[in-house]
User: Fold these one by one.
Assistant:
Number 1:
Amino acid sequence: MAISLEYSFILVVLGVIAGIINTLAGGGSNLTLPALMVMGMPADVANATNRVAVWLQCASGMSGFRQHDKLDTQDIIPVLIPNLIGGLCGALAAAWLPTSWVKPLLLGTLLTMTVVMLVKPATFGPPTGTPVKKVADTPTAWFGLMLAGFYGGFVQAGVGFVLLAALCGTLHYDLVRGNALKLACTLAFTSLSLLVFIADDLVRWAPGLILAIGTMVGARIAVRFAISANPKLLKLFLFVMTLVGCLAAYLF
């Protein structure tokens, strides 16, 4: 697929913005998916091509958090086990259930996350000094991570918000470390889905990699911001992004 220089520039700029949004909160694909479809891609091809950028963005963000010692690498596997079990169930449900369920579930989930942030803000960032819990010792964390995985397998869009609720709300990670582990979960989801999309020849590599240049840069910018930002500012950004996600889900 031939891409003009002007459109390549637009993809990179949108990629930077989406990389920042996805790393600090979620919902960056609300920008990148329409941009890919404007190029004439069908929705399924745009969705598959977008995953190239998401995958590389997650890898870039995880690397940045790890360099700043904010990625708890020893916790990745325990977190991924219930998350991927839920993701498999969600993917199977998506194959069996009608697509008409997707939009109500997306909108309902984002509205719920918005209300939770207003009513119980500690869910997305416990008080400083709160000890982190282990997944194996916390049944509610297993359930929350499985639920987040199910949602991710079924809908995908907005899964970052649900993952943060599970990681910060049940295991008491702060928002920075929660975001780092969120990227690990998203990377695992995306790896599985990307393999399927590649096998079905749905990925358009040139626009996907151009978009990825932007998302990788955006992820690195977001990591630097997250490390130095006031936690209250991070929560405010997260709240605003849930509102934007609700609006996008309602309109589109």
Note: DSSP finds ten helices and no strands in the chain.
Number 2:
Amino acid sequence: MGQVSDEDLFAPIFTSARRRALWLGINLITAFLASAVIGIFDKVLIEVAALSGIIIPMVLDKNGIDPALAGSVILTTVTDVVGFFVFLGSATIIFMS
């Protein structure tokens, strides 16, 4: 399982950091890449978030649910679902045409 030994688990912090530096660097680069791609579609996401951010609390309040407690969970779900829909929908359009 990744060839992790007890020696690796209990290694000093600097030794562990040195061993993981390459992968942490790659992770950082991929995070920047993902951020750049998201930035291309920021206008769509700003619309997807604004509309959801208005409608969800209103619907929760009408149903007697405190929007401050439930709103963030539902808003995150809606944002994720719409994000995947846009991502996969765009990929389908690109690759199926």
Note: The chain has a mean pLDDT of 81.
Number 3:
Amino acid sequence: MPPLNKTGVAYALDFDGVLCDSCLELICSAMLAIRSKWPQVLQDLVPNPLEPPDWLVSKLQKLRPLVEVGYEMILLGLLVVDEQHASIRSQQKSRPLSVGEIMENWHSQIKDQLWREYKTCDKELVDLFGKTRDEWIRQDLQGWLGKHRFYPGIVDALNFSESPLFIVTTKEKRFVCQLLKHSGVEMEEQRIYGLDAGNKLKVLKTLIKLDELKGRTLYFVEDRVETLEDACLTMLGTPVKFYLASWGYNTEEVRARAARNPQIEVIDLQTFVMKMQ
């Protein structure tokens, strides 16, 4: 990221994977949702959804780059736990799919198979996931907050930045607000664009039309290369620059792919925090 003229810059920042590491909370919420709808899947392998076993956390963390919207972790959780059961029943004759195999075949095959097998749909899982989180927060707010961590230096960077800041995320806005407040970040709610605001491209187009941003370049920082690639093509010629957060939920292959795109810059956490302040 080049030196910034702070009077001529604004930021549009993804939340999960850019500002906050919420992977453990995502896994726990998914396990709670599975327990409420398909309790037979967890059985004795995951007796406590809020303390999932290390083998499960490790694999789902590696699969996190597949999750664009939170409810998709429910599908990944169903797959990984069910495969572990099958492996145990067959006494290792049937091994679970590797992380690489799942990532390679997720969109082309596995995801559709899960929709059919569990007789569900995206709307149902969005509702289930939101209700599950709401209930967890209602019963144990501190426990829910404790499953998140902001990346080093982010809180100060947000609080002391001299440039206009916006959050553009597929997370529900009310969850973002709670986490920011808990961490001590002061941000006006109207600057937070959550799941109900529409896709990120729509939000970016809205932002660049704001009077506040006239004459400024909008820096869009995101950890999903697909989102950045779509934005590059759609917003060609607009005052927006695109950055892939290398510390986020992406892989080495994804970072190399982004680096080959002349419109995307791969940025590390230290550089990002330093330039924000």
Note: The longest strand covers residues 217-222.
Number 4:
Amino acid sequence: MSILGRGWSFPPRFDADQRAVLCEDVPDIEESLHILFRTRRGERVMQHAYGSLLHHFVFELTNEQTLTELCSMLRLAIMYFEPRIEVETLEAVVSPEDWARVEVQLGYRVRTTNTRHNMVYPLYLEQASHPVQAT
């Protein structure tokens, strides 16, 4: 049994014997973070505060202020809803390959094992702005 927890894989999958596929330890934490980031606040029936406001940033300007607000919002969501980790670094940067993609780079420490891990969460902006290039 894992000391970090065990839960259903996300998205839910089933093995050949029709049993739910489970994940545990750090993969369980990372799946939990993905679920937290993708869930809109108010979407869960019994936990209205659970989730993030990432969808509010889709049509925002991709500037330093927006990226800072995005990181602050995610830091609070993680603090309240993922107690197994402590955020060490959290940065949002516009992808150099695709200006419509913001990469959320998260460095965290698992509290019970004191191990450090990194995760990159891509946020694809449906309509993003980018700086006008001088000609």
Note: Residues 64-81 form the longest helix (18 residues).
